[in-house]
Design goal:
- It contains five helices and ten strands.
- The protein is of the alpha+beta class and 283 residues long.
- A ten-stranded antiparallel beta sheet has the order 1-3-4-5-2-7-10-9-8-6, with helices on one face.
- A hairpin with a 2-residue loop joins strand 3 and strand 4.
- Helix 1 packs antiparallel against helix 3.
- The chain is globular, with a radius of gyration of 19 Å.
- It starts with 10 loop residues before the first strand and ends with a strand.
Length: 283
């Protein structure tokens, strides 16, 4: 396979201003419109530093064509696989923001579902020149002929083993998601990826059974519900991994097993299978 090691170490910097408009719109998606905030809620930093491209610069899938910052990996399917975050200092409304990004790893893997590339990007986010957040973002690229069905079976087997041990719930909350939710989140993040809104492309070209719920939206729900249930706990670190897709026709639960210093968070399908797994520690 192609060697993309030359892309490791590549850097870029974005600047933004932490205005409250994206926050209030995201609050509306979470049924929290009008709730006063003076700092950015967990993971709402994903509403800033949005890359802007001309229509002519977009690929068939709605993403920007690869090869500017991210390596030109030929596999067409790309997804947000997970990430690790450290929350160091709060980001306040109207602060000047700077994000310094660096590609720290490009890794080729062979799985049952086909060949994969994993790209890890490290983001350091500063608010008024104070380091507020460090994030490692994992992106997965899949071959066009990789079988979604075989991947689903593989995941189901691994989840089946976990399901044999009894889960402990501190809470288990439903959060209905439909096509309008997906549209609003795509608009908020200026995400043109067709798997979130173009059903014919999603099913006929990429082979999914329905529209895909954004991984970042699911991760945001994990910390949002945690904050609703345990408002006194301040998150220090958050690590999450996408396990099984959630589609627009799926019902699911936002779950947590919360202890004094840490906790387990997960998105759970109604049949008990895990869609996203996460761990959190508290300050």
């Amino acid at each position: 396979m192609n060697n993309f090691e030359a892309w490791v170490g590549k850097k870029e910097t974005y600047h933004d201003i932490c205005n409250d408009k994206p926050i209030t719109m995201m609050q509306a998606v979470l049924n929290q419109y009008g709730k006063p905030v003076n700092e950015v809620p967990y993971l709402f930093h994903w509403l800033y530093f949005l890359p802007i491209f001309n229509q002519s610069e977009l690929a068939e899938d709605g993403h920007a064509k690869k090869g500017s910052f991210l390596p030109p990996i030929p596999f067409p399917k790309r997804m947000w696989a997970g990430g690790r975050l450290q929350f160091l200092n709060p980001i306040l409304i109207n602060q000047q923001l700077r994000r310094e990004s660096e590609i720290i790893k490009v890794e080729f893997k062979q799985g049952r579902s086909g060949n994969l590339y994993f790209v890890t990007v490290k983001h350091s986010i500063f608010a008024d020149d104070v380091l507020a957040l460090i994030e490692e973002h994992d992106i997965v690229y899949r071959e066009a002929n990789s079988s979604l069905q075989s991947k689903s079976a593989e995941v189901a087997k691994s989840v089946e083993k976990v399901a044999q041990t009894e889960k402990v719930y501190s809470y288990k909350k439903s959060f209905p998601v439909d096509t309008v939710t997906l549209f609003r989140y795509s608009a908020l993040t200026f995400n043109g990826h067709k798997i979130h809104y173009d059903r014919s492309y999603c099913t006929q070209i990429e082979g999914y059974p329905g529209l895909v719920v954004h991984g970042p939206l699911l991760a945001t729900l994990l910390l949002h519900v945690l904050n609703q249930e345990y408002a006194d706990k301040k998150v220090a670190t958050f690590e999450f991994r996408a396990v099984k897709p959630v589609f627009d026709f799926n019902e699911f639960y936002v779950c947590g097993n919360i202890k004094a210093e840490d906790g387990e968070l997960w998105i759970e399908h109604v049949d008990g299978q895990t869609a996203m797994q996460a761990n959190v520690t508290f300050k």
